[in-house]
Amino acid sequence: MRVGIVGGGVAGLTAGIFAASRGADVTVIEKNTSGAGAMCGWVRDGYMIDGCLHWLTGTKEGTELYGIWKKCGVLGGVVKTDSFFSSTSDSSTVTFWRDEARCFEEMASLSPEDGREVAKLRRAVAAASTVSGTASRPMKKCEAYLALAPYALISAGELAERFKSRAIRRALCDMTGKRFSSLGLIFAYSAFSSGNGYLPEGGSAGAAKRMVGKFISEGGTYLSGTEANRALRRGGAWRVSTADGGTMEFDSLIVAAEPARAVTELFGVEHFPKSFAKKYSMKEKYPLFSSVHFAFAAKSADVPFKGTSFFDVRRAPYSSVNRGRMMLREFSHEPSFAPEGMSVLQSLSFVGEKECHEWIDLSKKDDAYEKAKAAAAEAATERIKEYYPSLSGIKLLDVWTPASYSSYLGATCGAYMPFALTPATIPASFPARIKTLPRVYFASSWSRSPGGVPTAAYAGRDAADLALS
Ligand SMILES: Cc1cc2nc3c(=O)[nH]c(=O)nc-3n(C[C@H](O)[C@H](O)[C@H](O)COP(=O)(O)OP(=O)(O)OC[C@H]3O[C@@H](n4cnc5c(N)ncnc54)[C@H](O)[C@@H]3O)c2cc1C
């Protein structure tokens, strides 16, 4: 059985590893030359920049995902950081520690008048670990659902309004932004605090390299730097033509790239499911997002925080979802990321669809794009120095924007995740099959909300099953 896979991200490589390990003749066609799609890292001036993972669900032994990561070589070892992130506002800091008891006890003592809400939130985090099957002391399932129910239909901003402390309010919105479902933070923190959301050794680049290595060791053919641009049905097989003029034939095809662009470009827009296409116009209910990033070099001795820090800025350096806040992440958990005595710092800000289009439009005008990136970087650097004077010597390493994701991943609007979940969103799953495309299977983080690396991996595994059935 010849299986062609368009896209060598996590979904494509997982599909490839599962199919090749069952004896199929598998070829992954990937347009880039490094990384596993969005799960990637790159080197600038001797510093490793991590382009993806803030946490990876499935690091707890015994879970289904852990089994997938082991099979695909994703983990190497597991790196445990002490905290998920810290948020500072009005000189008070809220830290989401690995030890959740410490996190909630600190929150309650920071703001005793919020004690009741803090206790309810703590229970919801425990309930989320029960539902995910990772709690060390699980609650009864019905109790868990009851504890989560009050959060199911509210946004992070609405959750924050239940608290009096400004620092806690800020902390509850920092990770996702105000508009998005409050369950995002609850489930992500529950994964982290129950040991199921750590990091793979070597970060995103380490995990990507191990996945590609595993696929090749299973006998797969990995064609990097090759872009598939058309797929035609010929005599019961799929003939894929590539941008370098080549053609290949497969019995089954797995499309493991962002589906809106991939379906249109490979097969034609008429094959794209109309019900799914409609969602792109329902912008309130189905918002797309991407992000703007900066990376800096700093002397380790000058870095005054550990892990990920969110803090107030007098004005955001550019339009972003979290107005008035900035995030900075340090990587001391990966000493090889920076030369001796130095650290790499990274900043990420989510931006909505409108800003994504603005960045993508700008990127079509070389000069204007470079100027806009330089201006945003200058403003971001200034804000960081204002807030952390010890970082006055930071040096800019790189800037990337939604336009980078649009061109690197081929993702509509630079969105590297499916539609964001607001309380009004009905989770949208891109189907694994489209009626008009026989023996074509779709696998990507668009396969199930809320997306991310685990969804991509599950979708890849399931697509391999379908392709070999
Ligand atoms: C900054 C950032 C932080 C993130 N943090 C986390 C996190 O902490 N935890 C988490 O779980 N997830 C995180 N994610 C999301 C996660 O990385 C993605 O959801 C996941 O990697 C998507 O995998 P995928 O295989 O579905 O798609 P992709 O990674 O987009 O892979 C698709 C691949 O297809 C290739 N391709 C597209 N078109 C073609 C073509 N015509 N021919 C050949 N190749 C093609 C692309 O080059 C790409 O490599 C983050 C993403 C980003 C960008």
- Structural class of the secondary structure composition? alpha/beta
Please give the CATH class of the largest domain: Alpha Beta
CATH topology of the largest domain: FAD/NAD(P)-binding domain
Mean pLDDT across the residues is 95
Terminal Cα span: 10 Å
C-alpha Rg (nearest Å): 22 Å
Shape: globular
As for the number of domains, it is 3
Helical content stands at 25-40%
DSSP strand content: 15-25%
Low-confidence stretches: none
State the CATH architecture of the largest domain.
3-Layer(bba) Sandwich
The distinct ligands, each listed once, are: flavin-adenine dinucleotide
| Total helical segments | 15
Write the layout of secondary structure elements.
Blueprint: E1 2-6, H1 10-21, E2 25-30, E3 41-44, E4 47-50, H2 64-72, E5 78-79, E6 83-89, E7 92-97, H3 100-110, H4 115-132, H5 141-152, H6 156-161, H7 166-174, H8 183-193, E8 199-200, H9 203-217, E9 221-224, E10 228-234, E11 237-242, E12 247-250, E13 252-255, H10 259-266, H11 274-279, E14 289-299, E15 308-312, E16 325-330, E17 342-352, H12 353-363, H13 366-387, E18 395-400, H14 402-409, E19 440-442, H15 453-468
Parallel strand pairs: 1-2, 1-13, 2-9, 6-15, 13-19
Antiparallel strand pairs: 3-4, 5-8, 6-7, 10-11, 11-12, 14-17, 14-18, 15-16, 16-17
Helix pairs in contact: 1-9, 1-15, 3-4, 4-5, 4-8, 12-14
The protein binds flavin-adenine dinucleotide.
Flavin-adenine dinucleotide binds at residues 6-12, 29-32, 37-39, 51-56, 227-228, 256-258, 262, 291, 348, 409-411, 416-417, 444-445, 451-454, 456.
